[in-house]
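Second attempt. The first submission of (spotted green pufferfish) hypothetical protein had a stray character pasted in from the spreadsheet, which I only caught after the job came back as garbage. Lesson logged: always re-copy from the clean sequence file. Corrected sequence (75 aa) follows.
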Amino acid sequence: AQIRYSIPEEMKKGSLIGNIAQDLGLDLKRLRSGRARIVTGESIQYTELKADKGILVVNERIDREQLCGDVTPCS
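This time the job returned cleanly.
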């Protein structure tokens, strides 16, 4: 299954992005025992999956200009 979230830039480290377990309809026990992971094409891990809580949080501050430059939309 796949899910997408829009993340406003400049969110503080540790800010909640979304509840993966709830949004995918998974119970926490299954999420913890599985091999859930976040796949991005970036060398910097901007997000972190907290599998014990089933949530996705900001791991590094996101700067749109640094990531995308003048490209619009930025995704």
